């Protein structure tokens, strides 16, 4: 097929650009998108490499130009698309990062995610550990083992399922559980907002004595009611008398 025709067809798919500055995950995303385009086009390795070179730009483009210039003519002719992917991954997807992502996928559990969220994370991280999910059986088994215990038991009860069936059945069970969960009564959700204010009981009137605690006590005639029986009555204090005037001299004599 003519290269210009291939290039025109390739551009109709709006292929992604790779610059090497987007982080380690970017090269994997770029390769997967390019794989889908090349699969649709059905072209040779030489055409794949020619198309891919146009999409490698920036710092990655500078690196690729140096790499390509140092290859012999035979090496260039024999280079395949799979080999080019391996070269890019070795450069922009380092081994220590691959191992870390593989461990994350190996330990992946649903946790408090919904089945949809868990499946999305499972699909993203499984790309970094393809050897763990290289068959549909292994993929379905690993997905099922990461589900919550209740979901896993119910999914297992349906026997053998493909990966797609496992995901679909888990979503159906989850949706059924959500529908069967009784709604919490509104009065329990916000009791303070819906209950009327409690009516406080009337307090008893204070004793009469407490109301007159500041008044002076009457100590008139009724005071004798409080006198102990047999106690002698107290004599009134003597009233002082004015001095007597002498009738003879009209003077006051003291003593």
Automatic annotation (TrEMBL):
It holds the Pfam family Retrotrans_gag. InterPro entries: Retrotrans_gag_dom (IPR005162). Residues 201-244 are annotated as: Disordered. It comes from the Eukaryota. Residues 52-148 form the Retrotransposon gag domain. Transmembrane segments: none annotated. This is Retrotransposon gag domain-containing protein. It comes from Striga hermonthica. The lineage of its organism: Eukaryota, Viridiplantae, Streptophyta, Embryophyta, Tracheophyta.
């Amino acid at each position: 097929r003519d290269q210009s025709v291939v290039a025109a067809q390739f551009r109709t798919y709006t292929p992604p650009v790779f610059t090497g500055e987007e982080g380690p995950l970017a090269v994997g995303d770029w390769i997967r998108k390019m794989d889908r385009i090349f699969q649709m086009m059905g072209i040779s390795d030489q055409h794949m490499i020619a198309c891919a070179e146009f999409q490698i730009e920036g710092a990655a483009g500078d690196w690729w130009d140096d790499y390509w210039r140092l290859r012999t003519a035979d090496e260039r002719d024999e280079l395949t698309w799979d080999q080019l992917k391996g070269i890019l991954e070795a450069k922009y997807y380092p081994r220590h990062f691959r191992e870390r992502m593989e461990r994350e996928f190996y330990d992946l559990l649903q946790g408090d995610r919904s089945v949809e969220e868990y499946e999305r994370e499972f699909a993203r991280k499984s790309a970094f550990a393809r050897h763990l999910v290289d068959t549909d059986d292994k993929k379905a088994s690993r997905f099922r083992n990461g589900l919550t215990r209740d979901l896993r038991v119910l999914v297992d009860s349906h026997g053998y399922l493909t990966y797609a069936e496992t995901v679909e059945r888990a979503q159906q069970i989850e949706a059924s559980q959500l529908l069967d969960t009784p709604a919490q009564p509104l009065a329990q959700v916000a009791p303070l907002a819906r209950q009327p204010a409690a009516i406080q009981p009337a307090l008893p009137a204070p004793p009469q004595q407490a109301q007159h605690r500041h008044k002076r006590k009457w100590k008139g005639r009724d005071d004798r009611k409080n006198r102990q029986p047999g106690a002698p009555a107290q004599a009134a204090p003597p009233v002082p008398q004015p001095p007597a005037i002498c009738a003879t001299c009209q003077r006051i004599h003291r003593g």
